[in-house]
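Continuing the batch. This is chain 6 of the set; chains 1 through 5 are on the previous pages. Same settings as before, nothing changed between runs. Recording input and output for traceability.
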Amino acid sequence: MIVRLLSLFAAVFAIAQGGIIACVDQTSLGGNLYLVNRTFQLAKDYVPPDLVKPEVRTQGSNVTLRREAAKALEELFAAAKEAGHSLVAVSGYRSYASQNAIYRRKVSNTGSAEKAGLLVALPGSSEHQLGLAVDLGRASSTQLNYSFGRSREGQWVSENAHCFGFIVRYRAEWTEVTGIAEEPWHLRFVGVPHAAELKRLDMPLEMYIYQLSQASFGAYFTEGFGG
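Output for chain 6:
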């Protein structure tokens, strides 16, 4: 644990040459590491200030992301195409109202708020509202299901997303921490340095931010994260 904390602390300085300041900037609203889940929720009226449409193949015309994430997605799609894979952006920014509609529909379909909560985020707790999350499909199927993770495209994304600043946010073995079931199609933009560290450390974003904050500030400032 001590070695890992020291590694993370060193990573903060390497990323922005100023550990505490860098950690505050990146984990504040507007920063790439801002954590959104059932514990840390967004206000109903939050809308990112710099939403743009990425120049990639999309399902429909309403897929938008924050500017930096959109540019990174364009680079990811270009690299995937060079490798022989055709990706499709299915969903990007999602307003609170859209989240609420999706959640209510899932509750109705599953017959249980508990089951629905594992499959879709509660309103206000979706990373999509940050404008930093994107759901991917493939040209042959834009259905958001586990088959994406088993496909050639999904496997390529899993192995290479970090090179462009994205992480596969929800894995089956992390459900107890994230509160969300496996979603191999859901990518979260955190920036290349953090994505590379998360790939190397093989941990969910919650644990990474917790340990990064603990290394920078001490346990006093990380009580809300849990153990």
